[in-house]
Structures
1.
Amino acid sequence: MYLEIEKYGNINNALNSEFAKIKSPLRVQESESIDKFPLTYALVEYRNKFSQIYLAGKKHVFLPDFWRDGVCLANGQTNELNELVRVVDFWLLNDVSTNELSETFIWVKPNKKAIAFDENRAVEYAWNSYLKNEIFKDFQEFIEIAKQDEIIGKLFPFTSLMRLCFSRCTGYPYTYDIPIVIPIIDEKGKYEVRSSNDVIIGRGTAIQTLKMLKSHLPKNIKPAVKGTADDL
C-alpha cells in the first residue's frame, strides 16, 4: 500500500528525503531497534517537541501525533507523504499553538486538554478532570480539598493503577518523588498514604491524608512547571 515508502526502502529514508526536498533541517531519529522491528513507525524531534509517525495497517494512511513539553496535544491522519512532512516541519520548527496547527492543517485534531496546556492551565485542568470523572469517584473527597491547597493544589496530579500521584512537572515522564494516595475501598472517605517507594506512611480521612502528604514532601517543593522529569 505504501509505494512511496517502498521507493526509498523504508519510512526513515522516505521522510528524510522529503525533508530535504523542502529544505527542512529535520531528520528522523534513528533507533537502535531498527533491525528488530518492522519500520512502521518513525520519530522526529526538535528541542521540546516531537512527532511520532505511524503507518496504518489496513489502509494507506499516515498517523502523526504532536507533542510539546512531554504532552501529546494533537493527532492527525493524511494519505499524502508531502503533506505529512509539511505538518511535522511546521509544528516542530515554529512557535505555534495547537489551534494554529489545526487551523493551518485542518486534518489535525487537537486533544481536549490542548487549550489548557497551551494557556499554561495544565495543573488546573488536570485537577478538574479527575474531579469530574466518575471513574475516580473514590478520590473525590480528597481531591476537593487537595486542589485548593496552596502547595498540593499546585502540583500536577496523575493516576497510575488507581493511585493518585503528584508531579513537579506537567509532562511525561513525570517525577516520582512525592508520596501517593490510595483510596481504601471498604472504608469510604478514608485513604492510605504511601511513600514514592511504596512504604505505608499512614491512613486517615481526606483532611488527615492531606496533612500526612504535606509532612512528607521533598524539601523546597515548588509548583509544577512545564516540561518533563528529564528536564528537571
2.
Amino acid sequence: MKEIYRIFVEGPADKRFIEQLMEFVFNEKIPSDNIISTNGYTNLTATDKEGTFINEMQRTTDDGGINLVIFDADDDCKIRQTELLDWKRRTQTNFELFLFPNNKDEGELENLLEQIINPENKQIMECWDNYEQSLKEIHLPWRNGIPLTIPAKKTRIYAYLEALLGTSRSEKEKIKEKNRDYQNKKHWNLNAEALSELTKFLKSSLSQ
C-alpha cells in the first residue's frame, strides 16, 4: 500500500466507513489523519475554503503521494463528477475521484450502507420500509394536504443499528457515525458485491 496519500471525504460517517473498509481491504491499520473530512461537499470547492484543501492536496503531490476524493453523488452522478473535475482543472490539483454509492448512480453513503447490511438482518429494513409506506398513507386534516415528512436516509441506518444494539449508554454510543463498527459481521458484509467498485478503486489507487 502507498505510504503517502490523503483521502478527502464529506463528513465523520464517511471518514469512519472508509477507514474501516481500508483496514479490511489492506489488512493494516489506517492512520486516521490520512482521511480528511471537509464537512460537506461545498466546503471543498467554495472560494473561501479552497486554500486549505488545495494546500493539503499539493503537499501530498509534492511528496510523491496520491489524493483521493470520495464524495456523495447525490441527485446526479454525472453532474457531481463534472463539478468536481472542473474544480480539479481550475485549481490544477491532482486527485482521483469516486462517488458513492458506486461511481455511476445517484445516491450517497447511506445508499451503499443499506446494500451491505448483513442479509440475515434484511427484515429490519423491510419493517422500516413498511413504516415509511404507512407514513405516506397518513393524511392529517390540519396539514391541508401536505404529506408527512419521510425520515432521512441517515435515520434509516441509525434505526437499523439501534434495533441491533443494547439500550445502555455505551451501546447507544456505538450507533453514532464516528463510533460505528463496520467490521462487525453480524451487522455488515464488507464482502458484498455492492462494494466491488469502491474496493477496486481503493486497490488500484493505493496499491504499490
